[in-house]
UniProtKB/TrEMBL annotation:
Official protein name in the record: DNA-binding transcriptional MerR regulator
Domain of life of the source: Bacteria
Family matches, as Pfam families: MerR_1, TipAS
Organism: Paenibacillus amylolyticus
UniProt signal peptide: none
Amino acid sequence: MAIKVKEVAELASISVRTLHHYDEIGLLTPDEVTSAGYRLYSDANLDMLQQILFFKELDFSLKDIKDIINSPSFNREEALQMHRQILMEKRERLDRMIATIDKSVLHMRGDIDMTTKEQFEGFNFKENPYEQEARQRWGNKAVDQANEKLQRSSPNEQKAIADQMNSIFTHLATLRDTSPASAESQAVITQWYTYLNQMGHYSPEAFRGLGQMYVDDERFTRNIDQFGEGLAAFMKEAMAIFADQQQTD
């Protein structure tokens, strides 16, 4: 039975805009579109959406999800079993962290003694998924330069760096309903390019790729759109225009 896009959005607890984006990038194309342009989703579409959302829960980027599900070797049942195993491991880690919290409360009350090792059971922050993805996309050099600069910075300098970033994003958010090619939009996106190159080295093409990731990976979209809904998509367009202009200059 065909289901309208609004019903699918409510069923999966995602936005209609997200489903439109999935269609636009070829990640999830509805099996039917009416003459009036309404998207209608089949049972097979819903199965694929469920798979996409499982991968998203595991922090896969939309580009990686698209590559995986379109691979001739993709096996949905095998993928679901993999998801189950990973989520079970995640649940076990969360259970250990909850137990650590409970023990910590009892320790604070003086009801039990807690070893230093027990204080940190369940924690594992050795890998940063954002950093790992950046390394895979653009190599180690820009990331290492940015990390080295931050490590050398004093707390006041780190605050100034964060404030500058927030200022640029806030300014861009006020422009997101205007043309990304406008002089003002390009002036502020140039500030963003300059800011990034103060932290590391980003070529115009790497800058374009970063903008694409802002919409391909919903972790980034969610964080950027906190400044204003639609900002990530606006920045992606503005950054692509900036990169094109650098090639023609």
